[in-house]
Design brief:
Blueprint (H helix, E strand, L loop, with lengths): L3 H4 L55 H5 L10 E3 L4 E7 L14 H9 L2 E7 L5 E7 L7 E9 L4 E10 L2 E10 L4 E10 L4 E10 L4 E10 L2 E10 L5 E10 L4 E10 L5 E10 L5 E10 L7 E10 L5 E10 L6 E9 L3 H9 L4 H17 L5 H16 L3 H9 L1
Parallel strand pairs: 3-5, 4-6, 5-7, 6-8, 7-9, 8-10, 9-11, 10-12, 11-13, 12-14, 13-15, 14-16, 15-17, 16-18
Antiparallel strand pairs: 1-4, 2-3
Family: Belongs to the iron-sulfur cluster assembly SufBD family.
Protein name: SUF system FeS cluster assembly SufBD core domain-containing protein
Pfam families: SUFBD_core
Length: 404
């Protein structure tokens, strides 16, 4: 009997690559979960700006962080917090690094390749404790950072990362939430106007544990902060919240990923932004993946943008990938627009001026997210920062221009 494999014509149609060569490697990645991952920057090609992950980003202004030599020494930070939260520096080969996720793009890989030590924050208290990590003494030199935040099983904690001053920083932040733990991580960007900040946050959430991840981006010339939350244990809960306010010339970008990979997991994503001034640009991309293993999933994501003046641009792209039909629910929504005239009319009918009515709408729009932080002093300071942003814009005149 003749062996079929031995007689098969290797030139038969469909059994070899096309003559143009490399055709199979040129097919673009279609889903978030299929992206290649590596901690070595050499495994990623140079960024052109045509890639799906970079196409909305001003990559020409990021050359030093994407292709240059980064300072990998410790990123200076002060930590305030009670017992129940410890702070230490660990070597890059420590086994506690790399548990939450690894880079999917060149910017994060460049930072991972360059850093020498990681800043480890460990939450072990069973009653809620708060730690504030402040970074406000950096300079314009391109540098890499790495932070690991771990909540031990059954612990409760709030960790606030405060970013102020000038910086040229690319960093990775890992978040490990143990079984039954309740953790909130807040990243506040109030950089100076010349600051550039690239950040990738990776989180893994344990069985019956909960992570609330909050991003507040108000300052910085370019801020690109991308959180990835992996719900890879049964009963895990993940909430990703964000508030941002872009002024003239600012680029604020957030790419959010929720990966459901275990039964009975839950996620909620809510990002809200306001834009004012010529050249203000915001980007929000929300990816939710419900894997075949994630039966009983309950997920919803939304992004809302409030346009306050002409000359702004808000890109908003929600994506939902479902591999199983056995779920409780999943959905997404996106909206970008100006003030609701009925809301303004209602407030004016109660004796409030048009200018103040418009400011009240913006306050309520953004403070819905900020009020979830859980630290009164931080919430009050961010409310004051939003008030300062609003004081610089004549909202009545801006509305008149849009309506002309």
């Amino acid at each position: 009997m003749t062996n079929a494999a031995a007689t098969m014509d290797p030139a038969q149609h469909g059994l070899k690559a096309h003559s143009d060569g490399g055709w199979d490697s040129k097919v673009p990645v279609q889903t978030r979960s299929a992206r290649p991952k590596s901690t070595d920057v050499a495994d990623f090609p140079r960024v052109t700006g045509r890639e799906a992950v970079w196409k909305f980003t001003p990559v020409a202004e990021l050359d030093a962080l994407l292709n240059g030599e980064l300072d990998g020494s410790r990123v200076a930070a002060s930590v305030s917090g009670p017992e129940g939260i410890s702070s230490e520096w660990i070597a890059r080969d420590d086994a506690r690094i790399g548990r939450a996720g690894i880079p999917e793009e060149r910017g994060a890989a460049a930072a991972w390749t360059a850093f020498r030590e990681a800043h480890l924050l460990t939450v072990s208290a069973e009653e809620k404790v708060t730690a504030i990590v402040t970074r406000d003494t950096l300079d314009a030199a391109p540098r890499a950072g790495h932070t690991v935040i771990e909540a031990k099983p059954q612990s409760q904690g709030l960790v606030i990362l405060e970013n102020r001053g000038t910086a040229h920083l690319s960093e990775n932040v890992e978040i490990v939430v143990g079984d039954g733990a309740q953790l909130t991580v807040v990243s506040v960007q109030q950089w100076d106007d010349d600051a550039v900040h690239l950040a990738s946050h990776y989180a893994t959430v344990g069985r019956d544990a909960s992570l609330t991840h909050i991003v507040v981006s108000l300052g910085g010339g370019i801020v690109r902060l991308n959180p990835s939350i992996h719900l890879d244990h049964e009963g895990a809960n993940g909430e990703a919240l964000g508030a941002y306010f872009a002024d003239a010339g600012q680029h604020l970008e957030h790419q959010v990923y929720l990966d459901h990979d275990a039964p009975h997991t839950r996620s909620r994503v809510t990002y809200k932004g306001a834009l004012q001034g010529e050249g203000a640009h915001t980007v929000w991309i929300g990816d939710v993946l419900i894997r075949r293993s994630a039966t009983g999933t309950d997920s919803y994501e939304q992004n809302r943008n409030l346009v306050l003046s002409e000359g702004t641009r808000a890109d908003s792209i929600p994506n939902l990938e479902i591999e199983t039909g056995d779920i409780e629910g999943a959905g997404h929504a996106s909206a970008t627009g100006r003030f609701d005239d009925e809301h303004i009319f209602y407030l004016q009918s109660r004796g409030i001026s048009e200018e103040e009515a418009r400011k009240l709408v913006v306050r309520g729009f953004l403070l819905e997210v900020i009020a979830q932080i859980g630290d009164a002093a931080t919430e009050e300071r961010l409310q004051a920062a939003i008030e300062a942003e609003l004081a610089e814009t004549d909202l009545v005149r801006a509305a008149a221009v849009k309506g002309a």
